[in-house]
Task: structure prediction
Amino acid sequence: MNPEAQLASYAARSDLSPGRAWPEPPAISRPEFQRDRDRIVHSSAFRRLEYKTQVFVNHEGDLFRTRLTHSIEVAQIARSIARNLCLNEDLVEAISLAHDLGHTPFGHAGQEALNACMQGYGGFEHNLQSLRVVDALEERYGAFDGLNLMFETREGILKHCSAANARKLGPVAERFLQNRRPSLEAQLANLADEIAYNNHDIDDGLRSGLLQLEQLDEVALFVRHRREAEAIYPAISGRRLVNETVRRMINALIVDLIDASRARIAACNPQSLDDVRNAPPLITFSEGMEAEALELKRFLRSNLYQHYQVNRMTSKARRIVRELFNVYMAEPELLPGDYHLRGGSREQQARKISDYIAGMTDRYAMREYRRLFEVDEI
Ligand code: MG
Result:
C-alpha cells in the first residue's frame, strides 16, 4: 500500500513532485521522501552536527543540546504535528533533520563572523549553506554531487533567501520572488524548530546555571506551566520541576499549533499543494500563543544569548573563524589538498575556504586554530 495515499489533499506527495534534479529510478522499498530522510541521516554533514554548538560549545558540558540533538528534537516535534494534520511525515522529518546542516562551528557567532569575512565574495548564510551541502558538497554518489534530494525537501531547507540569491538559485527559490509559500511541511518544520530551541534553551540555560529559576517568573508561558506542575506535585523541585514545566510548555505549543493550523486550513480549504503555495501561511500559532512565544524568545535573547559568559565564548568564536579565514586567504598553500584551487578566481577561492570552515566542528576549528597560530602545536 502507498503510505502517501492516506495524506490530506494539501500534503506534499512524491508522485506529484517535480522530483530530483538528476532523475533516478524509484526506490523499491520506501517512499521518495523517506529516501531523502535516509540520505540525510547517512551524510557526513549530519554526523558533524554532533560536535557543533547550538548555544553551548560542545566541550562546555556533555548534557547540553548540540545541533544533532536539536535537529532530532525538531524532527520529533514536527512529526507529531504532521501526523495530526495528515501531512507528509517523511518530508517534514527530512527537512527537520537537514535544516541546520549548513551551520558553521560555534553557532550564530561563527555564522556572523564568516558572513563578515565573505562580504565582497557573495556573503555567507547558513540556510543557503544547508542547501549547498545537500545540492553540491556531499560526496557520496558516482553520478552526481550532493544528495540529489526531492524538490520539496530542498525548498524546505531553504527557509530564507534574499531576492539576489533567489535569482541565482532558480526554481528552488522562485517562491521568494513570487511571494508564494512553501509546502505546509516546510512551514511546520520552521515552527517546530522554534518550539524546540525555545524550550531546550530554557532547560540548558537552567542546567548551566546561567539562568535562575526565579528569573523565569517574568515569562507567562513558563509560570503557567510551572504552577500546573506544582499543583499536581506540591513537593516538586529542582530538575524534576524544570522538566515537568518544560514538557508541559512543549505540549501546549504543539497542541496550540495543531488547533490554530487546523482552523486556518479549514477556513482556506486548500485542495492541493499549489493552493497552499498561493495561500497565506497556514501553519501558525494562535494569536495569544504567538505573543507568549515571542515573550519567551525575548527573555532568552536578553538573559541567555547575551549573557556575559556566552558573550565571551562568542567573541572567541568570532576571532577563531575570522583568523582562520584570513590566514587561508593570505596563504592558500596551508589548506588541505582538496581545498586548493588552481587557476580559480579570488571569489572561488573564498567560497572554497568558506565551505571548509563551515564544515568544521567546534573542536576541529579550535584544533586548527591552535595548529596554525601556536608555535608548540603541530
Ligand atoms: Mg534549528
